[in-house]
């Protein structure tokens, strides 16, 4: 399998758009696909070879595919409901970077194999800024030949690529365990800031103390800034962590393994979603706490 | 109140020893007190004016006191059971840097006031390395004149001093909320690494992924290294977080505030202590999980 010259990027949200731009910058022939015409226009103006709502249209041009949609259902839709898998050239490597379960990853691999396509189980992390800079973290499993074939895409989009092993599903599992930490850290940040608000500690000061001390986390620093600013416009969303912590819970169920903190954190995000904050920034999980005043949010004190 | 020239450092554990050394380096006259003769010898050889198991002995030499013991009971013992408070010069500022409840801080302030002494409610963070470097984070409340008087000690020991306000108890509360995050992050790190072990993900790889991605925390990076190395020799201890998360729980109880994650984390540390790991490194909280093999630890699989 020779190295790829072209890549179809499916899903031009914050991560996919960043990855697509990074591929353009690296000199790859980039074909962009999304249902959002604004995203297509943006990528088109930045040097993509072509953009479309329908990836099948350019299937014969694609040496590789990068799928950066939200969940397993969307991966299945874009690959198999649209006939894309059937239209791609044999042996085209398909890099699946959505956060999905190990079981879903294995099922998608099997379906790709029916079309003589190979898969890299390659979830990503790092956020929109890192994606834009071509500095995502990729935690991947698959055949070494698939890693080799996708090297130009991996180099263009990632600062760090972990090769976890051959078995499809390992990449998904590592990402899910990563999301366990991400989700618990956001919920813990919310719990701490809510307690600070209840104790009449100024939240900007609390934020400043924590971010300069051993209680800090990447998520605390990034997300609790939104709480301090009272800005819950969605960068990531509460419902993303409802999904991801449910994937954590499914993984634990399969392994019969107890997860006291993840279970509590999942319950917090579900409560937030149920209270109507599902489409707000994930930091809005703090709104489940009653009896506190938050910057920019009306008091819930009854 | 003029600036202090001498300081009595009471409690020469990892944090107190680091603070005492930093004061020596800054040119202060340092008097060190501890029950451990080795600690006294070490500080004596590094330029302390005097060291002793009995702080009362040098009470008339002290312009200021820094108390860096483990809990409120020890603070009360060293200040009031030894007659030190009675022996100190009037208006001597006493910087209380143990992690204690807001209520304990207020009671200690009242007792110091009976002896015409003033208190800075000044918990610290940063770990032994930062203490040694004179770069602790100090989150303090008290009268501005007490901050001013202690400036030489604060400058010598801290990279960052937060002035949270006048009221004694605010410093304690901010530290307790900080410990909420620290404790939950250690427990979350343990939960994630335990799940990784159960899913047959190599722990060194999992550690490497997380520390290069958005799931990272200060505590994950610092403490899960001990798990990867299989080294549970105590830097901090499980029982310290049993104590600190109980302080978090007491604070929440006073404020009638629910803390789903902290409660779960407290239960994990209590389980670890109850299983016999109280005196091990706090990362040993991971040993509560059955059915996994950890580096350097015999399997608990039954």
TrEMBL record, chains A, B:
Catalytic residue list: 175
Annotated catalysed reactions: L-threonate + NAD(+) = 2-dehydro-L-erythronate + NADH + H(+)
Enzyme superclass (EC): oxidoreductase
Domain 3-hydroxyisobutyrate dehydrogenase-like NAD-binding: start-end pairs: 169-288
Keyword vocabulary terms for this entry: Carbohydrate metabolism, NAD, NADP, Oxidoreductase
PROSITE patterns: 3_HYDROXYISOBUT_DH
Domain spans labelled 6-phosphogluconate dehydrogenase NADP-binding: 7-165
EC id: 1.1.1.411
Record InterPro entries: 3-OH-isobutyrate_DH-rel_CS, 6-PGluconate_DH-like_C_sf, 6PGD_dom2, 6PGDH_NADP-bd, HIBADH-like_NADP-bd, HIBADH-related, LtnD, NAD(P)-bd_dom_sf
GO molecular function, one term: NAD binding
Superkingdom of the organism of origin: Bacteria
GO biological process annotation, one example: organic acid catabolic process
Family statement: Belongs to the HIBADH-related family. L-threonate dehydrogenase subfamily.
Task of the protein: Catalyzes oxidation of L-threonate to 2-oxo-tetronate. Can use either NAD(+) or NADP(+) as cosubstrate, with a preference for NAD(+).
Name of the protein in its database record: L-threonate dehydrogenase
Organism (species): Photobacterium proteolyticum
């Amino acid at each position: 399998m020779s190295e790829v010259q072209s890549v179809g990027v499916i899903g031009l949200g914050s991560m996919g758009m960043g990855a697509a731009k990074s591929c353009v910058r690296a000199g790859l022939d980039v074909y962009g696909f999304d249902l959002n015409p604004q995203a297509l226009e943006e990528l088109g103006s930045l040097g993509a070879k072509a953009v479309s709502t329908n990836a099948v249209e350019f299937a014969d041009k694609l040496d590789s595919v990068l799928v950066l949609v939200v969940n397993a259902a969307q991966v299945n839709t874009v690959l198999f409901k649209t006939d894309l898998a059937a239209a791609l050239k044999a042996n085209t490597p398909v890099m699946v970077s959505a956060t999905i379960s190990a079981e879903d990853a294995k099922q998608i691999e099997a379906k790709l194999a029916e079309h003589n396509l190979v898969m890299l189980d390659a979830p990503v992390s790092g956020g929109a800024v890192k994606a834009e800079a071509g500095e995502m973290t990729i935690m991947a499993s698959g055949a070494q030949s698939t890693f080799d074939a996708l090297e130009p895409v991996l180099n263009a989009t990632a600062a760090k690529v972990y090769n976890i092993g051959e078995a499809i599903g390992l990449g998904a599992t590592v990402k899910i365990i990563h999301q366990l930490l991400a989700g618990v850290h956001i919920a813990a940040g919310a719990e701490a800031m809510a307690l600070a608000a209840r104790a009449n500690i100024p939240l900007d000061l609390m934020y400043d103390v924590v971010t300069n001390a051993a209680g800090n986390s990447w998520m605390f620093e990034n997300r609790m800034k939104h709480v301090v600013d009272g800005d819950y416009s969605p960068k990531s969303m509460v419902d993303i962590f409802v999904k991801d912590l449910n994937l954590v819970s499914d993984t634990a169920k399969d392994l019969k393994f107890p997860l006291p903190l993840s279970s509590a954190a999942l319950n917090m995000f579900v409560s937030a979603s149920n209270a109507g904050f599902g489409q707000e920034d994930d930091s809005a999980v703090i709104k489940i706490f009653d009896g506190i005043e938050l910057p920019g949010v009306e008091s819930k004190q009854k």
